[in-house]
Amino acid sequence: MNNSPPLQLVILLGKDSPATFDTTPTRLEKEGNGIDTAVNKFRMAAYLWQAFTAEQMMRNKMGRRCFRFEEEWQTGTSNYRDREQGTMRNEAKIHIVRSNHTVEEIRDTDRAQQNSNAKDSGGLFNIAGEAVTEYFKPRPGQHLYVSVLILDTHWDNSAKLIRGHAALGGTFGNGLHLAIFGSHALHSYPTSLEEVVPAFTDCTRTDTDFVGNDCNESGSSWEAANIGIGAHLHETGHLFGCPHQESGVMLRDYVTLNRSFTTREPFSVRTNSKGGLVLQKDECGWHRLDCLRFRNHPCFRLPNDSKCNSDSSVQAWPVDNGQVLVTASSGVAYIEIFTDDDEICHTWIEYGDGNGAGPIQRQLVLTEQDLRSRLPDDRKTRKLRLDIKSIGGESTEVKDFSLLTSKASMLKLSNGQVAFRGVKLGLSQLEGSQPEEVIFESVLKQTKLLMQVKVYHGFALDGLEFVYEDSTTQLFGKRGGKPGGSEFNLGELICVGERLARC
Fold first, then answer.
1. Out of 105, 195, 235, 336, which one is annotated catalytic?
2. Which of 235, 353, 362, 360 is nearest to 295 (CA)?
3. Catalytic residue list contains 235
């Protein structure tokens, strides 16, 4: 959909960059290594991301939904005929962005695992983030999705090191969702649709006198294309919020990305195997959890999707009989179940989204018995942690499900009623942090009416003060930050509610 946010494509250059990339003499003579060739190759790689993702979403019964690109009207480059005849088309726009850093500064800024002598480990993400922010100039609160190719990446044969390369994806600042990757495999990419199959079947051995063999998994040209296009797609997955998974693109299955575009696989230097016929079951894919994330992501919207505003109302709290109530105004999308300190989710529960995948579930009741029954036998007795995702794109975490449903979460009030403690807010990482608990007096005394909430804040939230009709107050936290705090009056809302009730 044109009103969905696009994935912006950026080629990043140093301020003194000659705008060329590493390639072999044969390829240099055949297609060159200038900025125009780089643009064509990056655009074609992005179209492969798009086609692959749309197919995977369709196979997961979520429609051919996919992210879109910003487009520009230009002479077509994605097939030979358009180039020869000068046919104009709308094609993905590649933004050329110059950094304030020199080529040498970019190449000296490497990830720690790649270069222990790096001057600023991880700094390439910051360099790219600053350059992209300066170029697009997003306003506060705006979200921007940008995948960056660093053109000045260089294979240093003497040091046996790929300089100026980092494979990272995530968020930069408040609203920039960013992925970065080097151009060391760009020489192997196709420049047009006609070159896709040849690129994924080219067994030319990698000449490390001129180009790098990334992680020793790019021993031939087609394998270099897999690593370059696939690993950059992996980082773009991080950009869209995907963590590492037990399989698929977000593991390292992209080394078989070629199988989605060819019927036979050639000899592989990486596995020392002769290849052969490719079947659908042998292909790489997006993990089911990645597809669930994409289903409700703003960049993946389809025209028949119901209107969905972002909400932060997804909550979980204990109720009677060891049950936990989960609510979300937009609906619960799915729940990831972790045990102990799992970093990767192996078990999850899916719910409907109202688009043919079942009704939207805005309220759920969870029990420990049901959750544990979904786990394999060797994990049934371990500590449970839940990550609950809403259709609106928000989430809440239950760090210890058993603790939340235990007697430790129950509290007997002075009026004889039983209350339940919710999930603790905050990480308590600041020095001097103390736990606090507040029971609203309006719950204990039905005659007390809550009229106002004061929020004390500066760079962070310092405290909340609840003001009642009789001028008494309850303070949660401290009165810090802005003097007097910011006031939110409930009285007007109550009056409106009373008038509506009389009507």
1. 235
2. 353
3. yes
